[in-house]
Specification:
mainly beta; 70 residues
Length: 70
């Protein structure tokens, strides 16, 4: 995949449980864009990014999101 990285999007539910939304490759341009955004739209739903973690052991970027109710 070259300059791509696996990103795992996980939703923190209102009751505190975690639900994996998806895992897919992102380009370095998309990852760099995270510096400028606080919200993501995934599968037509808007989420706020509340935390990010680089899992060096797995070589994956993990993002914790909360759903924006609208």
């Amino acid at each position: 995949m070259g300059n791509d990285m696996t990103v795992i999007l996980t939703e923190k539910m209102p009751n505190g449980e975690l639900r994996e939304i998806e895992e897919r490759y992102w380009s370095m341009n998309l990852i760099a864009a995270l510096e400028h955004v606080n919200y993501l739209v995934v599968q037509g739903q808007e989420y706020e990014t509340i935390e990010g973690r680089l899992n060096v052991d797995k070589g994956k970027l993990e993002l914790l999101l909360v759903r924006i109710r609208g």
